[in-house]
Amino acid sequence: MSAEAIGERALAEARPKVFWLDRSERPEPSPPLSTDLTADLVVVGGGFTGLWTALTAAEADPGRSIVVLEADTIAFGASGRNGGFCEASLTHGLENGVAHWPDEVDTLLRLGDGNLQGLLDVISRHGIDCSPEPTGALNVAVAPWQADSLADSATLHEAHGLSVTLLDAPSTRSEVDSPTYLGGIWHHDGVVMLDPARLAWGLRRAAESLGVRFFENTPARSIEAVGGGGTTGVRIRTDAGSVAASRAVVATNAFHPPIRRIRRYIAPVYDHVLVTEPLSADQMAGIGWSNRQGLSDMGSQFHYYRLTSDDRILWGGWDALYHFGNRVGAAVEQSPGTSRMLATHFFETFPQLEGLSFTHRWGGPIATTSRFTCAWGTSHGGAVSWAAGYTGLGVGASRFGARVALDLVDGLTTERTELEMVRRPPFPFPPEPLRWPAIQITRRAIQRSDRRGGRRGPWLALLDRFGIGFDS
Question: I need a labelling partner for 168 at 20 to 30 A (CA). Which of 388, 401, 411, 456 fits?
Fold first, then answer.
């Protein structure tokens, strides 16, 4: 039986739900806002960036009155739909960091390491049960041109003091057994596997314990400046109430923000994920994976995958689907064709797991920028700041993004705010109707590049020249 047929059968009973969120322990949502309030700080968005903003602000100033407005429920977006790869990198990998900020990259590495340790300290201090596993990550080559780049990548990482091991094909397969592997790099530090939904729920509980008020199913419809006499604040209007505050942080990421300028820099792209039933002891023995690293292959179109705490395999990536007009929502969350393709690729990677079934399939929007890393900005006379665009690596980097947003909205000059990454925004995506064709042209060029041994071609070479691109 072909991998395609095996995958089709394995998908037969998969529920169109997010594995992490499909649990009886999911907390009941807070009631929506139904009155007018005042606060010192209002946070728009209840994903990781908003949660870290609220908790960080509350811990730094216990007397600060903080309100969080979430359009749906906590962790509804990318924060509850991702793979749970929590990385130290703030730059979407070292190579991307060196390409964009060569003079700052060592500072960014130090800040990233500190950010990840700070995140783990919060998990420990607040007793957040999100199953953190400091496994590191294994990047695998599945094509000869990818294998040819492994040594240079290992040398670059070692030059910046990072602990990696270069693996040949047999050594890679001794870690995780797939006939597709031609080599790999094991990144020993800076990557933790965790349960993202439980992390989000735990951050909410921690923030609530410090007095932060949450209002779910409460979309922010508008932000307007208020005040006078040299003092500027904002009023956030919702469907049935409002919040007047001296400061606000917008943390909507891939979803439509109440500040239009953010849309210049962010493109929402849909990533799709499958999760298997738990593997048996024999199935686990058949693939190895005793060190439980997070895995990804090294193509421009790539898969990422990991083991959950109960030995399921989460398998995602490859397609990055942009819908005309920055469209997001339930109507575009499922892509049967992408799910079938993912299932086919899964059994091409692990043919020894034939007979294993998928229990969950879902999609969700990732906010990408043209440089693949977070962007920040301010508005309303500095009374509002925003952070968005982690391009798939927001589980860890969102804590850093939140801290920068707080520095900006509080008018603080810090090491973080002085970074070129923060001070200089990414190259904006073109507006519609040009955005959709530009992204489709880039997607097709990426696909051709992978088919042609990694050769970039004229379109991608032009984007490289200007330090811009498209990724998920």
Answer: 456
